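Extended Data, record DUF998 domain-containing protein
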Amino acid sequence: MLVLAGVCYSSWVLDLFLHSGLDPMRSFLSELDSGHMPHRDVYVTGDVLTGVFSLLAAFGLRWPPSLVRNRFSITAAVAIGAFGASTIADALMPIECLAGRDPGCPSESRGLLPQLQHVHALTSSLAVFAIFVAMVAASLAAWRRGDWAWLRYGGGLVFAVVVLATVWMLAADRLGGDYRLGLAQRIQVGGMSLWLAFWGVAIARWGRGARAASANSADDGTAG
């Protein structure tokens, strides 16, 4: 489920072939599924499937409960479920128009809390926060508990790239000039997609190892 979530979260790559007309160096991915964009249904479907697969993965990690018991693994499972729910909400409540492209579209939000005026901004923020929590918790589980060993190095490297891209976005958003925010976000989201796939593979390998260890323990007990 996590591998499928990672694949579907990469639906924005299809813009290379569908040609929305947006500049990938400067546009945000949320613009691809805004109200008046062509092929928006493709990206909405990709995000909804990402959310569904993430929710199924969260359920699978917690059922049976014996699959994850320590606080890091449980936190990661809950967080990926929150990411799934937020991503579905994000896809179903897109931005209505694009400033500078759609007539009559305001250039920016007004008020102290623009998230309350644009629900899409809130759901996007919740999704990013949730997957960051999942990344941190799963990485701690990999390093401190020995779970999901593949996340220790490959997943850790991808996580570092995601963090750097996020810092790039946060810094550039507060500075004047052209800092390729669109590229930074594509690196960030691409890294998140790859990390989800890494986590799925790590869980599969860990699960086989855990079952083998349990079978060996049972055989030893029978022999005794």
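Summary. The chain has one domain: 2-101+115-209.
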